[in-house]
Structure prediction request, 114 residues.
Amino acid sequence: MDIKLNTENVELRKTFPEFGAGDTINVLLKIREGNKERIQQFQGTVIQRKNVGSNGETFTIRKISDSIAVERIIPIFSPSIERIELIRKGKVRRSRIYYLRKRKGKLARIKEKI
Prediction:
């Protein structure tokens, strides 16, 4: 699958690791509160990546916090992203793993790719 990228996007993309659906990542985001700025981490499982290779590329990340599921859609070229850390690669057979929304506990686990 050949994807043509704009030259500006290639420069921005170099800092991010390769990740896809099923991977567990840690996204460090810049949050502004008034005139102060801080970094907040959002760690979870990638459910999907949309428009890969274009300017409008986004990814959806899901985490469970106090038994409440939280999903966040983040543009890959957002200036608020400080960095993305890949924690573990997941072994999935689909590019969009929406079936995780119906599962809880041990059923929601994803095997690790070795």
User: Anything to note?
Assistant: Strands lie at 24-33, 36-50, 58-65, 68-75, 81-88. The first helix runs from residue 7 to 13. The first strand starts at residue 24 and ends at 33.
